[in-house]
Protein backbone atom coordinates (compact mmCIF):
# COMPACT_ATOMS: atom_id res chain seq x y z
CA UNK A 1 0.00 0.00 0.00
CA UNK A 2 2.61 2.50 1.18
CA UNK A 3 5.01 1.49 -1.58
CA UNK A 4 2.20 2.01 -4.08
CA UNK A 5 1.47 5.46 -2.65
CA UNK A 6 5.12 6.36 -2.77
CA UNK A 7 5.41 5.20 -6.38
CA UNK A 8 2.27 7.18 -7.25
CA UNK A 9 3.71 10.29 -5.60
CA UNK A 10 7.00 9.88 -7.41
CA UNK A 11 5.22 9.42 -10.76
CA UNK A 12 2.92 12.38 -10.23
CA UNK A 13 5.64 14.71 -9.05
CA UNK A 14 8.00 13.57 -11.80
CA UNK A 15 5.35 14.20 -14.46
CA UNK A 16 4.11 17.48 -13.04
CA UNK A 17 7.57 19.03 -12.87
CA UNK A 18 7.53 22.58 -11.52
CA UNK A 19 3.76 23.06 -11.53
CA UNK A 20 0.80 21.19 -10.12
CA UNK A 21 -0.28 20.24 -6.61
CA UNK A 22 3.13 18.98 -5.47
CA UNK A 23 4.82 22.28 -6.11
CA UNK A 24 2.11 23.79 -3.94
CA UNK A 25 2.79 21.14 -1.24
CA UNK A 26 6.46 22.03 -1.32
CA UNK A 27 5.56 25.71 -1.06
CA UNK A 28 3.43 25.01 2.02
CA UNK A 29 6.24 22.97 3.56
CA UNK A 30 8.69 25.79 2.87
CA UNK A 31 6.36 28.29 4.50
CA UNK A 32 5.92 26.09 7.58
CA UNK A 33 9.38 24.62 8.08
CA UNK A 34 11.48 27.52 6.80
CA UNK A 35 10.78 29.77 9.81
CA UNK A 36 11.27 26.80 12.19
CA UNK A 37 14.67 26.03 10.65
CA UNK A 38 15.62 29.68 11.05
CA UNK A 39 14.54 29.61 14.69
CA UNK A 40 16.36 26.37 15.50
CA UNK A 41 19.59 27.66 14.00
CA UNK A 42 19.22 30.94 15.85
CA UNK A 43 18.97 28.96 19.09
CA UNK A 44 21.63 26.36 18.29
CA UNK A 45 24.34 28.73 17.06
CA UNK A 46 24.79 30.85 20.25
CA UNK A 47 24.97 27.63 22.31
CA UNK A 48 28.03 26.49 20.40
CA UNK A 49 29.51 29.99 20.50
CA UNK A 50 28.97 30.16 24.25
CA UNK A 51 30.86 26.91 24.78
CA UNK A 52 33.79 28.09 22.70
CA UNK A 53 34.07 31.35 24.63
CA UNK A 54 33.71 29.82 28.14
CA UNK A 55 37.43 29.25 28.47
CA UNK A 56 38.18 32.87 27.63
CA UNK A 57 35.74 34.27 30.19
CA UNK A 58 37.41 32.41 33.06
CA UNK A 59 40.84 33.71 32.10
CA UNK A 60 39.65 37.27 31.54
CA UNK A 61 37.97 37.37 34.96
CA UNK A 62 41.25 36.69 36.73
CA UNK A 63 42.90 39.42 34.71
CA UNK A 64 40.18 41.90 35.63
CA UNK A 65 40.71 41.14 39.30
CA UNK A 66 44.43 41.74 38.94
CA UNK A 67 44.37 44.73 36.65
CA UNK A 68 41.30 46.89 37.00
CA UNK A 69 42.63 49.31 34.48
CA UNK A 70 42.14 46.75 31.76
CA UNK A 71 38.49 46.32 32.60
CA UNK A 72 37.09 48.46 29.86
CA UNK A 73 39.25 46.89 27.20
CA UNK A 74 38.26 43.37 28.28
CA UNK A 75 34.58 44.24 28.29
CA UNK A 76 34.89 45.48 24.76
CA UNK A 77 36.69 42.28 23.79
CA UNK A 78 34.02 40.11 25.34
CA UNK A 79 31.30 41.93 23.49
CA UNK A 80 32.92 41.25 20.13
CA UNK A 81 33.07 37.50 20.31
CA UNK A 82 35.04 35.37 17.94
CA UNK A 83 31.87 34.39 16.14
CA UNK A 84 30.90 37.98 15.52
CA UNK A 85 34.34 38.80 14.22
CA UNK A 86 34.33 35.82 11.86
CA UNK A 87 30.88 36.77 10.58
CA UNK A 88 31.98 40.35 10.09
CA UNK A 89 35.00 39.22 8.10
CA UNK A 90 32.79 37.06 5.89
CA UNK A 91 30.38 39.91 5.34
CA UNK A 92 33.24 42.26 4.47
CA UNK A 93 34.62 39.73 2.02
CA UNK A 94 31.23 39.42 0.39
CA UNK A 95 30.76 43.18 0.13
CA UNK A 96 34.27 43.55 -1.24
CA UNK A 97 33.61 41.08 -4.05
CA UNK A 98 30.13 42.48 -4.75
CA UNK A 99 31.50 46.01 -4.74
CA UNK A 100 34.20 45.22 -7.27
CA UNK A 101 31.63 43.61 -9.57
CA UNK A 102 29.06 46.38 -8.93
CA UNK A 103 26.56 43.68 -8.02
CA UNK A 104 23.61 44.54 -5.83
CA UNK A 105 23.38 41.74 -3.29
CA UNK A 106 20.94 40.70 -0.60
CA UNK A 107 22.85 39.35 2.39
CA UNK A 108 21.66 36.12 3.98
CA UNK A 109 22.84 33.37 6.29
CA UNK A 110 22.71 29.64 5.69
CA UNK A 111 20.25 28.12 8.16
CA UNK A 112 20.06 24.51 6.93
CA UNK A 113 21.98 22.12 4.69
CA UNK A 114 20.25 19.36 2.75
CA UNK A 115 21.84 16.06 1.83
CA UNK A 116 19.10 13.46 1.31
CA UNK A 117 21.29 10.46 2.15
CA UNK A 118 24.35 12.11 0.61
CA UNK A 119 23.15 12.60 -2.96
CA UNK A 120 22.10 16.21 -2.71
CA UNK A 121 23.94 19.45 -1.89
CA UNK A 122 21.44 22.17 -1.13
CA UNK A 123 21.13 24.90 1.49
CA UNK A 124 18.33 26.97 3.00
CA UNK A 125 19.10 30.68 3.41
CA UNK A 126 17.15 33.12 5.58
CA UNK A 127 16.00 35.44 2.81
CA UNK A 128 12.94 34.84 0.66
CA UNK A 129 10.57 36.44 -1.80
CA UNK A 130 9.93 39.25 0.68
CA UNK A 131 13.59 40.26 0.38
CA UNK A 132 13.48 40.36 -3.39
CA UNK A 133 14.85 36.87 -4.01
CA UNK A 134 13.60 35.09 -7.12
CA UNK A 135 14.47 31.71 -8.57
CA UNK A 136 17.59 31.40 -10.74
CA UNK A 137 19.61 34.15 -9.09
CA UNK A 138 23.35 33.78 -8.51
CA UNK A 139 24.48 33.14 -4.94
CA UNK A 140 28.00 34.23 -3.98
CA UNK A 141 30.12 34.79 -0.89
CA UNK A 142 33.47 36.50 -0.30
CA UNK A 143 35.38 33.67 -1.98
CA UNK A 144 33.32 33.21 -5.12
CA UNK A 145 30.44 31.22 -6.57
CA UNK A 146 28.22 29.39 -4.06
CA UNK A 147 25.32 28.29 -6.27
CA UNK A 148 22.00 29.43 -7.62
CA UNK A 149 18.54 29.90 -6.11
CA UNK A 150 16.43 26.85 -6.86
CA UNK A 151 13.16 27.68 -5.11
CA UNK A 152 11.87 30.56 -3.01
CA UNK A 153 9.61 30.59 0.04
CA UNK A 154 8.16 33.60 1.86
CA UNK A 155 11.07 33.98 4.31
CA UNK A 156 13.57 31.35 3.15
CA UNK A 157 15.03 30.13 -0.14
CA UNK A 158 16.65 26.92 -1.29
CA UNK A 159 20.07 27.21 -2.95
CA UNK A 160 21.48 24.53 -5.22
CA UNK A 161 25.16 24.49 -4.26
CA UNK A 162 27.81 24.41 -6.97
CA UNK A 163 29.06 20.99 -5.81
CA UNK A 164 25.65 19.36 -6.39
CA UNK A 165 25.57 16.72 -9.13
CA UNK A 166 22.84 18.63 -10.95
CA UNK A 167 24.80 21.89 -11.02
CA UNK A 168 26.36 23.17 -14.21
CA UNK A 169 27.66 26.63 -15.07
CA UNK A 170 29.36 28.16 -18.08
CA UNK A 171 32.98 28.99 -17.22
CA UNK A 172 35.84 30.88 -18.83
CA UNK A 173 39.57 30.42 -18.35
CA UNK A 174 41.26 33.46 -16.85
CA UNK A 175 43.97 34.10 -19.44
CA UNK A 176 43.01 32.51 -22.72
CA UNK A 177 39.31 33.35 -22.45
CA UNK A 178 38.41 29.87 -23.69
CA UNK A 179 35.01 28.76 -22.50
CA UNK A 180 33.62 25.50 -21.19
CA UNK A 181 31.43 24.34 -18.35
CA UNK A 182 31.99 23.46 -14.71
CA UNK A 183 29.88 20.65 -13.29
CA UNK A 184 29.33 19.64 -9.70
CA UNK A 185 29.65 15.96 -8.88
CA UNK A 186 28.40 15.60 -5.31
CA UNK A 187 31.00 14.07 -3.03
CA UNK A 188 33.50 13.80 -5.90
CA UNK A 189 35.46 16.87 -7.09
CA UNK A 190 34.01 19.35 -9.55
CA UNK A 191 35.10 19.09 -13.18
CA UNK A 192 35.73 21.62 -15.95
CA UNK A 193 35.12 20.64 -19.55
CA UNK A 194 36.86 22.77 -22.17
CA UNK A 195 34.85 23.02 -25.36
CA UNK A 196 37.78 23.69 -27.67
CA UNK A 197 39.87 20.64 -28.54
CA UNK A 198 42.90 22.71 -29.64
CA UNK A 199 43.51 24.87 -26.57
CA UNK A 200 45.83 23.37 -23.98
CA UNK A 201 44.60 23.11 -20.41
CA UNK A 202 47.13 23.66 -17.62
CA UNK A 203 46.93 23.17 -13.88
CA UNK A 204 46.63 26.32 -11.81
CA UNK A 205 44.49 28.12 -14.39
CA UNK A 206 41.63 29.98 -12.79
CA UNK A 207 37.98 29.93 -13.77
CA UNK A 208 35.25 32.57 -13.68
CA UNK A 209 31.57 32.33 -14.65
CA UNK A 210 30.27 33.27 -18.07
CA UNK A 211 27.14 35.37 -17.66
CA UNK A 212 23.79 33.95 -18.70
CA UNK A 213 21.34 35.83 -20.88
CA UNK A 214 19.71 38.47 -18.67
CA UNK A 215 22.16 37.63 -15.86
CA UNK A 216 20.00 34.72 -14.71
CA UNK A 217 20.84 32.22 -13.41
CA UNK A 218 24.46 33.45 -13.53
CA UNK A 219 26.07 36.86 -13.48
CA UNK A 220 29.46 37.06 -15.25
CA UNK A 221 32.99 37.11 -13.79
CA UNK A 222 32.30 35.42 -10.44
CA UNK A 223 35.39 33.37 -9.44
CA UNK A 224 34.71 29.61 -9.36
CA UNK A 225 38.02 27.90 -8.63
CA UNK A 226 41.24 26.72 -10.24
CA UNK A 227 42.33 23.62 -12.14
CA UNK A 228 44.26 21.17 -9.97
CA UNK A 229 44.56 18.27 -12.36
CA UNK A 230 44.17 17.80 -16.10
CA UNK A 231 42.56 14.54 -17.13
CA UNK A 232 43.82 12.99 -20.31
CA UNK A 233 41.25 10.85 -22.01
CA UNK A 234 42.57 9.47 -25.29
CA UNK A 235 40.10 9.88 -28.13
CA UNK A 236 37.85 12.28 -26.25
CA UNK A 237 36.62 15.36 -28.14
CA UNK A 238 36.88 17.67 -25.14
CA UNK A 239 39.45 18.17 -22.39
CA UNK A 240 38.49 17.97 -18.77
CA UNK A 241 40.15 19.05 -15.55
CA UNK A 242 39.50 18.71 -11.84
CA UNK A 243 38.42 22.00 -10.24
CA UNK A 244 39.23 23.06 -6.69
CA UNK A 245 36.49 25.59 -5.80
CA UNK A 246 37.35 28.77 -3.91
CA UNK A 247 34.29 28.41 -1.67
CA UNK A 248 34.49 26.03 1.31
CA UNK A 249 31.14 24.26 1.04
CA UNK A 250 31.40 22.61 4.46
CA UNK A 251 31.63 25.96 6.28
CA UNK A 252 29.04 28.14 4.55
CA UNK A 253 27.62 30.95 6.65
CA UNK A 254 27.21 34.43 5.15
CA UNK A 255 26.18 34.44 1.49
CA UNK A 256 24.82 37.06 -0.88
CA UNK A 257 22.15 36.71 -3.55
CA UNK A 258 22.84 38.89 -6.58
CA UNK A 259 19.57 40.70 -7.26
CA UNK A 260 20.95 43.11 -9.86
CA UNK A 261 24.11 43.22 -11.95
CA UNK A 262 25.60 46.05 -14.01
CA UNK A 263 25.44 45.96 -17.79
CA UNK A 264 29.11 45.10 -18.03
CA UNK A 265 31.68 43.65 -15.62
CA UNK A 266 35.40 44.13 -16.44
CA UNK A 267 37.13 40.91 -17.42
CA UNK A 268 38.92 39.04 -14.63
CA UNK A 269 38.30 41.95 -12.27
CA UNK A 270 36.89 39.79 -9.47
CA UNK A 271 39.66 37.21 -9.21
CA UNK A 272 41.90 37.55 -6.19
CA UNK A 273 45.48 38.72 -6.95
CA UNK A 274 47.46 35.84 -8.38
CA UNK A 275 49.99 34.36 -5.94
CA UNK A 276 53.56 35.16 -7.04
CA UNK A 277 52.97 36.67 -10.45
CA UNK A 278 50.94 39.73 -11.34
CA UNK A 279 47.38 39.18 -12.56
CA UNK A 280 46.05 40.01 -16.00
CA UNK A 281 47.99 43.01 -17.29
CA UNK A 282 45.09 45.12 -18.51
CA UNK A 283 42.93 44.97 -15.44
CA UNK A 284 45.31 45.00 -12.50
CA UNK A 285 44.67 48.62 -11.41
CA UNK A 286 40.93 48.05 -11.05
CA UNK A 287 41.21 45.15 -8.63
CA UNK A 288 42.12 47.24 -5.59
CA UNK A 289 39.29 49.71 -5.26
CA UNK A 290 36.08 50.27 -7.10
CA UNK A 291 35.61 53.60 -8.82
CA UNK A 292 33.09 55.44 -6.69
CA UNK A 293 30.91 56.59 -9.55
CA UNK A 294 29.89 54.77 -12.67
CA UNK A 295 27.56 55.85 -15.43
CA UNK A 296 25.01 53.14 -14.65
CA UNK A 297 24.29 54.49 -11.21
CA UNK A 298 24.61 51.60 -8.77
CA UNK A 299 27.76 52.84 -7.13
CA UNK A 300 28.02 50.61 -4.11
CA UNK A 301 26.38 47.37 -3.14
CA UNK A 302 23.49 47.73 -0.75
CA UNK A 303 22.64 44.61 1.23
CA UNK A 304 18.99 45.32 1.82
CA UNK A 305 18.52 42.49 4.33
CA UNK A 306 20.70 42.31 7.39
CA UNK A 307 21.43 38.72 8.22
CA UNK B 1 -1.07 2.57 19.34
CA UNK B 2 -2.13 5.17 21.85
CA UNK B 3 -2.42 8.86 21.24
CA UNK B 4 0.57 9.67 23.40
CA UNK B 5 2.73 7.32 21.33
CA UNK B 6 1.59 8.98 18.12
CA UNK B 7 2.48 12.34 19.61
CA UNK B 8 5.87 11.00 20.70
CA UNK B 9 6.66 9.66 17.23
CA UNK B 10 5.63 12.93 15.58
CA UNK B 11 7.83 14.87 18.01
CA UNK B 12 10.76 12.50 17.46
CA UNK B 13 10.53 12.59 13.67
CA UNK B 14 10.11 16.37 13.41
CA UNK B 15 12.98 17.08 15.81
CA UNK B 16 15.18 14.53 14.00
CA UNK B 17 14.51 16.20 10.63
CA UNK B 18 15.19 19.68 11.97
CA UNK B 19 18.33 18.62 13.85
CA UNK B 20 19.51 16.85 10.69
CA UNK B 21 19.33 19.88 8.39
CA UNK B 22 20.37 22.56 10.90
CA UNK B 23 23.10 20.79 12.88
CA UNK B 24 24.21 17.36 11.62
CA UNK B 25 24.54 18.30 7.95
CA UNK B 26 26.80 21.22 8.92
CA UNK B 27 29.32 19.02 10.72
CA UNK B 28 32.58 18.86 8.76
CA UNK B 29 32.74 15.05 8.56
CA UNK B 30 34.44 13.30 5.64
CA UNK B 31 32.41 11.59 2.90
CA UNK B 32 29.01 11.42 4.62
CA UNK B 33 26.89 12.41 7.62
CA UNK B 34 24.88 10.25 10.03
CA UNK B 35 21.15 10.24 9.29
CA UNK B 36 19.07 10.90 12.41
CA UNK B 37 15.73 10.41 10.63
CA UNK B 38 16.77 6.94 9.49
CA UNK B 39 17.93 6.07 13.01
CA UNK B 40 14.62 7.22 14.51
CA UNK B 41 12.65 5.20 11.94
CA UNK B 42 14.71 2.08 12.68
CA UNK B 43 14.35 2.62 16.44
CA UNK B 44 10.56 2.96 16.16
CA UNK B 45 10.36 -0.12 13.94
CA UNK B 46 12.35 -2.12 16.51
CA UNK B 47 9.77 -1.22 19.16
CA UNK B 48 6.61 -1.32 17.08
CA UNK B 49 7.18 -4.04 14.48
CA UNK B 50 7.07 -4.04 10.67
CA UNK B 51 3.64 -2.55 9.93
CA UNK B 52 3.87 0.51 12.15
CA UNK B 53 7.55 0.81 11.33
CA UNK B 54 6.62 1.11 7.66
CA UNK B 55 3.90 3.70 8.35
CA UNK B 56 6.19 5.82 10.54
CA UNK B 57 8.98 5.45 7.96
CA UNK B 58 6.68 6.51 5.14
CA UNK B 59 5.42 9.61 6.95
CA UNK B 60 8.91 10.56 8.18
CA UNK B 61 10.31 10.17 4.67
CA UNK B 62 7.46 12.17 3.14
CA UNK B 63 8.10 15.00 5.61
CA UNK B 64 11.83 14.89 4.83
CA UNK B 65 10.92 15.01 1.11
CA UNK B 66 9.00 18.25 1.66
CA UNK B 67 11.07 20.14 4.24
CA UNK B 68 13.45 22.67 2.64
CA UNK B 69 16.16 22.47 1.37
CA UNK B 70 15.04 19.11 -0.09
CA UNK B 71 15.27 19.20 -3.88
CA UNK B 72 14.27 15.86 -5.34
CA UNK B 73 11.14 14.07 -6.54
CA UNK B 74 8.67 13.91 -3.65
CA UNK B 75 8.18 10.35 -2.41
CA UNK B 76 11.69 9.00 -2.81
CA UNK B 77 12.69 9.24 0.85
CA UNK B 78 9.14 8.15 1.80
CA UNK B 79 9.64 4.95 -0.19
CA UNK B 80 13.16 4.35 1.12
CA UNK B 81 12.24 4.85 4.78
CA UNK B 82 8.98 2.84 4.48
CA UNK B 83 10.99 -0.14 3.19
CA UNK B 84 13.57 0.36 5.96
CA UNK B 85 10.88 0.57 8.65
CA UNK B 86 9.21 -2.59 7.39
CA UNK B 87 12.39 -4.64 7.06
CA UNK B 88 13.82 -3.46 10.40
CA UNK B 89 10.56 -4.47 12.08
CA UNK B 90 10.68 -7.89 10.40
CA UNK B 91 14.30 -8.55 11.38
CA UNK B 92 13.56 -7.59 14.97
CA UNK B 93 10.82 -10.24 15.16
CA UNK B 94 13.20 -12.93 14.03
CA UNK B 95 15.86 -12.64 16.72
CA UNK B 96 16.56 -11.72 20.29
CA UNK B 97 17.54 -8.12 20.96
CA UNK B 98 21.29 -7.89 21.34
CA UNK B 99 23.63 -4.94 20.85
CA UNK B 100 25.30 -6.67 17.92
CA UNK B 101 21.92 -7.50 16.37
CA UNK B 102 20.79 -3.89 16.62
CA UNK B 103 24.01 -2.62 15.10
CA UNK B 104 23.72 -5.06 12.20
CA UNK B 105 20.12 -3.99 11.60
CA UNK B 106 21.08 -0.30 11.59
CA UNK B 107 23.94 -0.96 9.17
CA UNK B 108 21.68 -2.94 6.85
CA UNK B 109 18.96 -0.30 7.12
CA UNK B 110 21.36 2.48 6.11
CA UNK B 111 22.59 0.53 3.11
CA UNK B 112 19.01 -0.48 2.21
CA UNK B 113 17.72 3.10 2.40
CA UNK B 114 20.55 4.38 0.21
CA UNK B 115 20.02 1.66 -2.39
CA UNK B 116 16.25 2.26 -2.43
CA UNK B 117 16.75 6.04 -2.78
CA UNK B 118 19.45 5.62 -5.44
CA UNK B 119 17.39 3.01 -7.28
CA UNK B 120 14.38 5.33 -7.50
CA UNK B 121 16.79 8.07 -8.61
CA UNK B 122 18.01 5.88 -11.44
CA UNK B 123 14.40 5.21 -12.50
CA UNK B 124 13.40 8.89 -12.59
CA UNK B 125 16.70 9.83 -14.25
CA UNK B 126 18.40 11.71 -11.41
CA UNK B 127 21.84 12.72 -12.70
CA UNK B 128 23.16 13.03 -9.16
CA UNK B 129 22.96 9.28 -8.50
CA UNK B 130 26.03 7.49 -9.83
CA UNK B 131 27.85 4.34 -8.79
CA UNK B 132 30.86 6.41 -7.80
CA UNK B 133 28.88 8.67 -5.49
CA UNK B 134 27.11 5.67 -3.94
CA UNK B 135 30.38 3.78 -3.44
CA UNK B 136 31.99 6.84 -1.87
CA UNK B 137 29.16 7.72 0.50
CA UNK B 138 27.81 4.31 1.55
CA UNK B 139 30.62 2.96 3.78
CA UNK B 140 30.99 6.22 5.69
CA UNK B 141 27.22 6.62 6.12
CA UNK B 142 26.93 3.06 7.48
CA UNK B 143 29.81 3.68 9.86
CA UNK B 144 28.37 6.94 11.26
CA UNK B 145 24.88 5.46 11.72
CA UNK B 146 26.29 2.40 13.46
CA UNK B 147 28.28 4.62 15.83
CA UNK B 148 25.16 6.63 16.73
CA UNK B 149 22.86 3.58 16.99
CA UNK B 150 23.76 2.62 20.62
CA UNK B 151 22.64 6.11 21.68
CA UNK B 152 19.50 6.65 19.60
CA UNK B 153 17.88 3.18 19.70
CA UNK B 154 17.78 2.81 23.53
CA UNK B 155 16.73 6.46 23.85
CA UNK B 156 13.68 5.93 21.62
CA UNK B 157 12.79 2.65 23.39
CA UNK B 158 13.00 4.37 26.77
CA UNK B 159 10.93 7.32 25.54
CA UNK B 160 8.20 4.90 24.37
CA UNK B 161 8.17 3.19 27.76
CA UNK B 162 8.07 6.56 29.45
CA UNK B 163 4.95 7.83 27.64
CA UNK B 164 3.20 4.43 27.77
CA UNK B 165 3.96 2.86 31.12
CA UNK B 166 1.08 0.35 31.11
CA UNK B 167 1.73 -1.03 27.63
CA UNK B 168 4.30 -3.82 27.52
CA UNK B 169 7.04 -2.94 25.08
CA UNK B 170 7.69 -5.71 22.59
CA UNK B 171 11.23 -6.96 22.88
Helix-strand makeup class of chain A: alpha+beta
Name the poorly predicted regions of chain B: none
Quaternary status: heterodimer
Largest sheet of chain A: 6 strands, antiparallel, barrel
Tell me the series of helices and strands of chain A, N- to C-terminal: HHHHEEEEEEEEEEEE
Count of strand segments of chain B: 0
Describe this structure in words.
- The complex is a heterodimer of chains A (about 300) and B (about 170).
- By secondary structure, chain A is α+β, with helices and mostly antiparallel strands.
- Chain A is about 30% helix and about 25% strand.
- Chain A has a six-stranded antiparallel beta barrel.
- Chain A is globular.
- In chain B, about 75% of the residues lie in helices and about 0% in strands.
- Chain B has six helices and no strands.
- Chain B has helices at about 5-20, 35-50, 50-65, 75-95, 100-125, 130-165.
- The longest helix of chain B is centred in the C-terminal third of the chain and has 33 residues, at about 130-165.
- Chain B is globular, with a radius of gyration of 15 Å.
- The two termini of chain B are about 15 Å apart.
- The interface between A and B is large, with 51 and 53 residues.
For the structure shown, list the relevant keywords:
heterodimer; A: 6-stranded antiparallel β-barrel; B: mainly alpha
Helices and strands in order:
The complex is a heterodimer of chains A (307) and B (171).
Chain A lengths: L1 H15 L4 H46 L4 H9 L2 H20 L2 E11 L7 E4 L12 E3 L4 E8 L4 E5 L6 E6 L5 E7 L2 E7 L11 E4 L13 E9 L7 E7 L8 E7 L47
Antiparallel strand pairs in A: 1-2, 1-12, 2-5, 3-4, 3-12, 4-5, 6-7, 6-9, 7-8, 8-11, 9-10, 10-11
Chain B lengths: L2 H20 L13 H13 L1 H17 L9 H19 L4 H25 L7 H33 L8
Helix pairs in contact in B: 1-2, 1-3, 1-6, 2-3, 2-4, 2-6, 3-4, 4-5, 5-6
Amino acid sequence: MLMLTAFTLITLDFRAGHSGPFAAMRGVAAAVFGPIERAVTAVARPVGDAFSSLGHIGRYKREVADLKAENARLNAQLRTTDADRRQLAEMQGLLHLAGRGQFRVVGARVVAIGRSLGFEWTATIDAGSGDGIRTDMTVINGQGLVGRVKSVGPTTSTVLLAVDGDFSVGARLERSGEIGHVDGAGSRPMTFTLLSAQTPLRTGERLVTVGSIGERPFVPEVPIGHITEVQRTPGALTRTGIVQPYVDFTALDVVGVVVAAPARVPRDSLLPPAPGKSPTPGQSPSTGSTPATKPNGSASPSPSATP
Amino acid sequence: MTGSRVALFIALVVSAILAQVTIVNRLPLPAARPDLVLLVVVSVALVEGPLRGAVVGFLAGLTADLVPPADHTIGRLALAFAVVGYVAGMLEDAEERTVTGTIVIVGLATAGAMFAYAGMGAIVGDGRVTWQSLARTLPAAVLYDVILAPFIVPFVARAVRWVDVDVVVRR
